[in-house]
Amino acid sequence: MKSLTALATLAALGLASAASADIKIGATMSETGPAAFLGDPEAKTLKMLVEKLNAAGGINGEQIELVLYDDGGDPNKARTFATRLVEDDEVKAIIGGTTTGTTMSIIPVAEDSEVPFISLAGAVEIIEPVKEWTFKTPHTDRMACEKIFEDMKARGISKIGMISGTDGFGASMRKQCLGVVGNYGIEILADESYGPTDADMTPQLTNIKNTAGIQAVLNPGFGQGPSIVTRNFQQLAVGLPLYQSHGVASKSFIDLAGAEAAEGVHLPGAALLVADLLPADDPQKPVVEAYTAEYTAKYNEAVSTFGGHAYDAFQILMQAIERAGSDDPSAIRDEIEKTTGYVGTGGVVNMTPEDHLGLDLTAFRMLEIKDGTWTLVE
């Protein structure tokens, strides 16, 4: 169990004192454990942004104190930490929920305590149906399905195989894909799955390979599973297009799968991954380039869309606090819901009382892995 406050970090740097930490926000993220490749860049991003903001004078002249806990990807710990953040730390808002599982355990705490919560996880069920105090920044799993099926349809693919993780994200995306696939005239001929600790998906992929008529394979999942699927896919010489989800949109996926195995993999992703490839007039280009430069300079590692989710959550929250002119949770909640025209790493956000995400399919870019890096699909 780990606890860290940005205030302590700032004090050590001589940039803040206890008296200047006036607005307290909380976070519970999976800095360690199986989802660390998601939670680590999220936590690093929040620390970086709080330090930068406080050094510049804070919000409305007040400093920001970040209370950050590492839940290790455990939903029970996430709920415990969320309760601690509200009851003991008395935070005014919460950012976190690295995974769908941890997010779903935090939601009841936020809703019951009436504290605004911005999730960093992908499942559409986080915001549908709309919950009064819960928001999110990542594209939903349903949107990922739709973006993938759009691409498949454009390529004349109408019959596919699917292999999904049974974790919260994988199961949710599988459900969403099954729900919308018919809208694109695509039929799923094989539907396989694997567990979070499975180390070999060869049997499932062999079943898919031996199913007549399949033209492509889709893998809803995150963590190490998709990397194993990708390696096994190459080893079996399946010889079909392989689509992954936005849940693997980090350099660590390519590293784990191996550049050779990942070559040609398609997936929907954020503009952040292809900042240098965006046209000069793209409204996201200045944002993603600035975040990329700042993060890589501070941590000497590549950015990921997951850190970008935390970037957007923090900026949306800070702008809401600034507009509210108050640290009252209810006023902050209202202003988050009014977020309009926010240009972030994930897209242009326009929230409403009926939409606590505020992104549409144009926020996704279709990507292909070539030579060990991301390229835009034309």
TrEMBL record:
Database matches in Pfam families: Peripla_BP_6
Domain Leucine-binding protein: 23-358
Alphabetical list of InterPro entries matching this protein: BCAA_transport (IPR051010), Leu-bd (IPR028081), Leu_Ile_Val-bd (IPR000709), Peripla_BP_I (IPR028082)
Taxonomy, superkingdom: Bacteria
CDD domains xrefs: PBP1_ABC_RPA1789-like
Keywords: Amino-acid transport, Signal, Transport
A GO BP entry: amino acid transport
Signal peptide region: 1-21
Family label: Belongs to the leucine-binding protein family.
PANTHER family referenced in this protein's UniProt entry, alphabetically: BLR7848 PROTEIN, LEUCINE-SPECIFIC-BINDING PROTEIN
Stated name of the protein: Branched-chain amino acid transport system substrate-binding protein
Gene source species: Amaricoccus macauensis
